[in-house]
UniProtKB/TrEMBL annotation:
Native source organism of the sequence: Virgibacillus siamensis
Protein name: Ribosome assembly RNA-binding protein YhbY
Keyword RNA-binding in record: yes
InterPro entries named among the record's database cross-references: RNA-binding_CRM, RNA-binding_domain, RNA-binding_YhbY, YhbY-like_sf
Signal peptide start and end residues: none
Length: 96
């Protein structure tokens, strides 16, 4: 679990990031979870955008993604989800 201080730090880091994945009307699928897991291994922190035509609630999508890739939901803001997962080989974010 992330502490409040760590979440604030990660939100600040993600502030300038652009979303690299989009969840559309098909919702979350296995292929998307695999790709997000690989991206988290490389970057540790990613932003996922939820499109207007997504039929599911943004908090449900965040829960599906985080449980699918065993990552922490840092924040759900607007139509964006910020995910964090500590990398095995590419560790470059030092949490406070």
């Amino acid at each position: 679990m992330l502490t409040g201080k760590q979440k604030r730090f990660l939100r600040a880091e993600a502030n300038t990031m652009k979303p690299i994945f989009q969840v559309g009307k098909t919702g979350v699928n296995d292929n998307m979870i695999t790709q997000i897991d690989e991206a988290l291994e490389k970057r540790e922190l990613i932003k996922v955008s939820i499109l207007q035509n997504c039929l599911e609630d943004k908090h449900t999508v965040a829960e599906q993604l985080s449980s699918g890739v065993q990552a922490e939901v840092v924040q759900v803001i607007g139509n964006n989800i910020i995910l964090y997962k500590e990398s095995e080989e590419n560790k470059h974010i030092q949490l406070p």
